[in-house]
């Protein structure tokens, strides 16, 4: 018992000081602390529902495991304070069920209030996990609250009935009768693992978010990449993978046809929150631009945004691996000329003319060799924009693990 208490105390102290150093670069105190973001889904809007004396169980799929976890709650889009009265974490045992859920505290307290626009990381919770494991994060809201959400969870999460009370400690999941595909409240899960080398954040729009992959199967290209890392790299060279994709978003902030729902979610506007606010980030795979062209942005506008974001990442000590814009049906001739111009810039010297670290040419993987402005039919999810599960696997298989690992040096 004394050993356990000492271990929990050390983890709590690490969590406290690590949280104060959010977004630090490779070689920093944060990276040395052993905390790495193993799962993420960026919030993008207010939910279309009010939580009312009910519990939420979010099922997260970890890219790597460790000996403890901590979670991030966000109230990015809230207009009033958000109070979560109880939180637990437990290994998923299928559906809404979990095994031996552990209580989660925030600065030593079970209840936490997050101000509008704010976020909070939990203390360390003593939960041992493995790579590719699902972890249920359960939260109880005793009052009424409109949570933030990630719209495209690509898997089932669970709610209890309104007024059902606190079921965060339940193991069987019977109270969580309602399935939802949106991800509420929790936006990231860290693992504590001193053997890990860094976190690779995938940053972009719906092509990063995994649209087109099989629902509920964990076969987004970022999931496939995480499995490759576990299978192909020795334990002391592995990295976590965090998905920071939001559908409909752009790299540039001011495309003329941009829908109102994605304004303010451009790459520069959400970089601190959704990438640098994660832990242990050493490298970013930057996969942005298809919506920019669809919304009427020119190559010059896109490249201006690229240079701005790349400079901020380099300043933070994070290496940047960039993919040319992949095909999309409906592009005008001018759109395709702009796509070509952006691709030429990205491939120049294989380093975006010296402004990025390297190139991850997903366009080369996905394009039809007979019709290079379209996707290969075998990789097309059916909309001409998003890769199906086979295409997602091809993307993950194309990435160079030594290149990504170079970000940790």
How many discrete domains? 2
CATH homologous superfamily (4th level) name of the largest domain: SGNH hydrolase
Could you describe the largest sheet, including whether it forms a barrel?
A: 6 strands, antiparallel
Spatial extent as radius of gyration = 21 Å
Q: Write down the CATH class of the largest domain.
A: Alpha Beta
Q: What is the CA–CA distance across the termini?
A: 38 Å
Q: Structural class of the helices, strands and pairings?
A: alpha+beta
Description:
The structure is a single chain. With 409 residues, the protein is an alpha+beta fold. It has two domains: 167 residues, Jelly Rolls (Sandwich), CATH 2.60.120; 214 residues, Rossmann fold (3-Layer(aba) Sandwich). It is 26% helix and 25% strand. It contains eleven helices and 20 strands. The strands form five sheets. The chain has a six-stranded antiparallel beta sheet, with no helix packed on it. The longest helix has 18 residues. The protein is globular. The two termini are 38 Å apart. The N terminus is likely disordered.
């Amino acid at each position: 018992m004394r050993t356990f208490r000492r271990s929990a105390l050390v983890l709590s102290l690490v969590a406290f000081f690590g949280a104060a150093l959010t977004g630090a670069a490779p070689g920093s105190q944060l990276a040395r602390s052993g905390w790495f973001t193993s799962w993420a889904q960026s919030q993008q809007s207010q939910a279309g529902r009010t939580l009312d004396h009910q519990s939420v169980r979010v099922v997260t799929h970890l890219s790597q495991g460790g000996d403890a976890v901590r979670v991030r709650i966000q109230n990015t889009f809230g207009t009033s304070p958000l109070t979560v009265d109880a939180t637990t974490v437990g290994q998923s045992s299928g559906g809404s069920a979990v095994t031996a859920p552990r209580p989660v505290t925030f600065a030593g307290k079970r209840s936490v209030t997050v101000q509008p626009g704010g976020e909070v990381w939990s203390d360390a919770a003593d939960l041992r996990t493995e790579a590719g494991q699902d972890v249920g994060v359960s939260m109880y809201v005793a009052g009424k609250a409109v949570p933030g959400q990630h719209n495209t969870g690509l898997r089932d999460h669970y709610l209890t009935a309104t007024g059902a009370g606190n079921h965060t400690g339940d193991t069987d999941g019977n109270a969580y009768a309602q399935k939802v595909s949106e991800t509420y409240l929790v936006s990231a899960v860290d693992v504590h693992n001193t053997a890990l080398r860094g976190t690779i954040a995938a940053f972009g729009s719906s092509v990063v978010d995994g649209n087109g992959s099989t629902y509920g199967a964990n076969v987004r290209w970022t999931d496939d990449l995480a499995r490759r890392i576990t299978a192909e790299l020795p334990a002391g060279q592995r990295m976590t993978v965090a998905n920071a994709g939001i559908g409909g978003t752009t790299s540039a902030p001011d495309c003329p046809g941009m829908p109102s729902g994605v304004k303010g979610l451009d790459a520069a506007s959400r970089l601190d929150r959704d990438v640098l606010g994660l832990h242990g980030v050493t490298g970013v795979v930057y996969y942005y631009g298809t919506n920019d062209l669809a919304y009427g942005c020119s190559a010059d506008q896109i490249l201006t945004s690229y240079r701005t974001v790349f400079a901020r990442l380099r300043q933070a000590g994070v290496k940047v691996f960039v993919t040319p814009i992949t095909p999309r049906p409906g592009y005008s001739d001018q759109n395709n000329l702009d796509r070509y111009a952006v691709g030429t810039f990205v491939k120049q010297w294989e380093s975006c003319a010296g402004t990025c670290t390297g190139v991850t040419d997903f366009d080369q993987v996905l394009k039809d060799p007979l019709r290079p402005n379209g996707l290969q039919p075998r990789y097309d999810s059916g909309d001409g924009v998003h890769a199906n599960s086979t295409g997602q696997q091809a993307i993950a298989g194309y990435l160079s693990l030594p290149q990504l690992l170079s970000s940790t040096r």
